[in-house]
Design a protein that fits this description.
The chain has about 180 residues and is an all-alpha fold. The protein has one domain. It is built from 2 helices and no strands. About 5% of the residues have low confidence.
């Protein structure tokens, strides 16, 4: 029996060693498993947190994008309205300016025609006046010369000059007629 006892003690010792080793490994595996579960729980919590943040920021981004789209639409409408108003005003002002320029041009043409007609008439009158004035001045000079010549000839025939002789036919003497400038002095 002793052999069996020895085998039994050896098997018991081996079993105890095996159980200790199994217990140590079980404890290590339990700790590792608990750590893995903790890490997995932490990972799942982190995943849920990131997902919640993504959802939250996605919602905020959607709201912000919606607000920005509405604001852009509003600004686009205001811009379009302002542009349409400015365009209409520009067209109106341009048409008014075009009309005013055309009216002014038409009036300038009418005024030019009237002025040309007045100038033509005035030039004809001035030319005619110059001609008549020239003729009148010539007539006045001729009459003045005739009168002066007549007066001097009458005086000369009445006074009989010294250089004329009685038995000779009188000769026409050159009479110097004073100029208008001299007469005006």
């Amino acid at each position: 029996m002793s052999f069996m006892q020895q085998d039994s003690i050896g098997a018991n010792k081996e079993l105890c060693d095996y159980l200790k080793k199994a217990r140590t490994e079980f404890t290590e595996h339990t700790i590792a498993s608990a750590e893995s579960i903790t890490v997995m729980d932490h990972y799942l919590g982190l995943k849920i947190g990131v997902k919640n943040l993504n959802t939250k920021y996605q919602q905020e981004l959607n709201v912000t994008m919606g607000d920005m789209a509405k604001e852009n639409d509003k600004l686009q409408d205001e811009f379009s309205s302002t542009f349409s108003t400015l365009d209409a005003n520009f067209v109106t002002r341009t048409n008014e300016l075009h009309s005013a320029v055309n009216d002014s041009l038409m009036q300038d043409r009418e005024n030019k025609e009237a002025t040309d007609a007045i100038l033509e008439t005035s030039m004809k009158q001035v030319t005619l006046l110059q001609e008549k004035h020239g003729q009148a001045v010539s007539k006045i000079r001729d009459k003045a010369e005739q009168s002066l010549t007549k007066d001097y000839q009458i005086q000369n025939t009445k006074n009989c000059r010294v250089d004329q002789r009685e038995n000779e036919t009188p000769k026409k003497l050159a009479i110097i007629v004073p100029s208008l400038r001299r007469l005006r002095r």
